[in-house]
Structure formats: C-alpha cells, structure tokens
Specification:
Blueprint (H helix, E strand, L loop, with lengths): L2 E6 L13 H10 L6 H20 L4 H11 L10 E2 L8 E2 L1 H13 L7 E2 L3 E2 L5 H11 L3 H21 L13 H13 L3 H13 L15 H21 L15 H5 L6 E6 L24 H13 L9 E8 L1 H7 L15 H4 L3 H11 L10 H4 L2 H7 L2 E5 L1 H8 L10 E7 L4 E6 L14 H12 L5 H12 L6 H4 L22
Parallel strand pairs: 7-8
Antiparallel strand pairs: 1-6, 2-3, 4-5, 7-9, 9-10
Helix pairs in contact: 1-7, 1-8, 2-4, 2-18, 2-19, 3-4, 4-5, 4-9, 5-6, 5-7, 5-9, 6-7, 7-8, 7-9, 8-9, 11-14, 14-16
Amino acid sequence: MTITHHVRVHRSDEDLPREGQLAWAIARVATDDVAVDDDVADMIINRVIDNAAVAAASLTRRPVCAARQQALDHPVSIGGVGSTVFGCALERRTSPEWAAWANGVAVRELDYHDTFLAAEYSHPGDNIPPILAVAQHTGRDGAALLRGLATGYEIQIDLVRAISLHKHKIDHVAHLGPSAAAGIGTLLGLDIETIYQAVGQALHTTTATRQSRKGEISTWKAHAPAFAGKMAVEAVDRAMRGETSPSPIYEGEDGVIAWMLDGKDAAYDVPLPGEGETKRGILDSYTKEHSAEYQAQAWIDLARRLGAEHPELRDPANVASIVLHTSHHTHYVIGSGAGDPQKYDPTASRETLDHSIPYIFTVALQDGAWHHVDSYAPERAGRLDTVELWHKVTTAEDAEWTRRYHSEDPNEKAFGGRVVITLTDGSTIEDEIAVADAHPLGARPFAREEYIRKFRLLAEPVLLPEEIERFLDLAQRLPELTAAEVLQLNITAKPGVLAMAPAPKGLF
C-alpha cells in the first residue's frame, strides 16, 4: 500500500529524527528488496533501448563530443573495472562518474527520450546512465541493474508528483540527484544509513536555477542532468566511506524547502511505495516520438494532421493568426507567455527552438513531419515563409487545459490543447488534441516494436548492422544478463564516426 510521506519545514529546536525525514523515507524505499514486476521489467528494457537510440543520434554533436572527451581523459578508478562510454569500443573505459557524465549528455542532448510531468517535470531516463555506469564498474548483473533502475524511476517520479521546483525557478534535476543516488543504493545493496547520506548530498549539490532552460538556452541544458548523475555517483562514494551530509536536507530551517521552494510554512505529501510494495512508477511515464519538449509532442501530431487536411494553412498569406489554447506550463515555458523574444528568433540555438512551441507548430504544419536534425537546421528556421507564419502563432492559457494537465486521473491528464486558426478571409479552423499519438492513450501508443524502430532509425547512420543487433539482443535480455554482459551494454560507433567528430581539449 502506498505511503504518503508528509514533508514540512522544521525549526532546529524541533529536532526532527532521521526516521521522519524525506531523505530517510527515500532510502527506505531503496532498501526494500522487492521483486520487479514483469511489466515494469519490460518497460525498463524499452527505456534502455530508447536511451541508446537518442544517444546514437547525438554521438557527433559538439556537446556530446566535449563530454565524451572529458570522460576519456580520465582513467579508470582503481575500485572496479570501469564503465563504458557511448560510441567507444567496449574495452575503452573510464571511471563511473565520468561515464555517467558523458553518457548522460549523449542521452539528453536531443531532448528525445522519456518524460514524466506532474507538479514538476522530468526525464526519468536520466537515471539510467549513472546507475548503469556503477553497475558496470562494480560487476553487477542484469537483475541487480533492473532493481536499481526501478528504484531510480520510482523515486524521481514520486518526487515529481508532489514537489514543484519550476515554480521557484529551480531546475528539475534537483529531483534527479536523489533518485539516482537511491537507485545506485539499491543496485549495490547498501544499507539505509548510507543511502540516506548519499541522497542528502546528491540533493544539496544539484539544486540550481532554471536559467539553463530560459532565454538563450545553452548547451548546459544537456549537461545539467548529466552533472546530477555524476554528483549522485560521487555522493554514494562519499557516503560509503562513512561521511555524512547536510541534515535535514529537505525539512531543515535553512534547507531546500525553506529557502529554495515554498518557504518555512510549506508542506508536501510525497507518495512512496509501502514496505513490500513493488516499484511501478516507470509505467506512468512516456517517451517521445519527436525530438522536442514533451509539451510539443501532441502539438506536432496535430499540426501534421492539419497541414495534410488543409494545405492552404502552410502559406502565411492565407493565415491571419494561430492561437494555441493550452496549459499554464505550455504557455509560460515554451509558449508566447514566456516573454522570450528568442522563441521567435530564426537565429536562435537549437536548444531554444526546441522550447518554442510557435516555431515547432509552424514547421510541423508546413512540413507534415518532424525530424531531429532537419527541423532545427538554420536554413529551415530562417525560411522566409516559415518566419512569417511563425510570427502569427501565439499561445493562451486555458483553465481547463491547465486543470487536465495537473489531473491525477491518467485517463484525463492531457498535454495538448485547442487550436484556433483564423484565415485572412475571416473563416476559422478549430481542432484539439489531448495527448501525443505515441502516448499510452494516443492514436499510436509506443510498444516494444516502436522502441526498436526508433532505435534502428537513429542508430543506422552511426552503427554497423551487427552492432545494432548485438545491442538489441543484450538489452532485451536485461533481467538475465551476467555481470560480463552488463559490461557490454553499450553501443560502439562505426569505424571512423568518432574519428571525424570534434575532440576538444581542455584542462584535463
């Protein structure tokens, strides 16, 4: 039975015991060695495949190359056999925290993997790189890796259900540090005290502002979750050595809630699995068919459909205005409500464009498709008819779509909205969409077949056919993998792919 953990700020003289703290409750879940349900195991396999797919597509992108080179410039630490790095030969390894860093950037770079949205937003697949890196380094088998990943997903999703970070302009990776630390704790079979200390440090070192996702969005957007994963690995290492961390990290009068979130009078109810209850949080998350912010997924599908049904909409001369009536989040974070002129700037960075729903809707409407590279190309963004139509697209908050966005009923929860297109002749076209086609309740829900298709599509340009098959075979046998096979759970690029990619040098 799910336990609701009540969290509030405590004065120092209240002397909140560890057993009453959220970090301890998280550690308790991590130490509960329950079996992983078959459907959860299947979904974890899907997400391991999904992560590898989007990492493959980003192997030669400069932020990924920089992070990979940083990792490769560090030797394997002496405590294990090391961890593999996406794209590199299996025997080319680095220490686990640097593998978590490099692989985390590769996974997040294209903003193309799984998502969970509630009080906060998240990409829970960001838990996979650090937990997998530690599993490889320490010689854990597939069953242990599976349990660790189930914990990582569960904790992050439970925190996201209850505690809003973005409302206070704190980046969402503050939920990732604790979840990854907990997942590593489960993987290694650590005791509750050690995991508690690791969770505290992981949170303490991963709280940062949301400027990484505001204005002119930089390449740090992909690095931020990788940094949280790296910090989680280091926090576990430190805690295993017997060192302690700030406490109570959430509830203290100078803690995260009091000074970074809702303040000294704040209270939250965090749902966590009860003792003996299986960890099923991953089943409430969903992946992306398109390489764009999740709130854009449904809008891309609607725009593609509208463009096919009404080709006249692709010509800005026929359109007076396009208004997307949507949720508070979509309007203020990726819509015109953000007040960011960069969201209408054809010279803006890719990271900025994938957080601009006016741009995304326009291109999907005109092209009837969405591509992870071509749709963001400077020449595509700068096309004159696109820029003209793009500047006619605005968003508006709609109370009903905001309510549905926050609904806890999965059959009602929605991430889309209603579009009203006014033509120059005064007529209007209206349509709406609640969830993306790939969503579990969408027109074409993703199942194993779709995850494999996505992997093949993104991997074929950079992996040999036999490497694609080798990885897919391993990933689909994840629960039964030996430690030696877990060490091979990586993708190796075709000869010459990485040699032609940038290899920037820095301090190391």
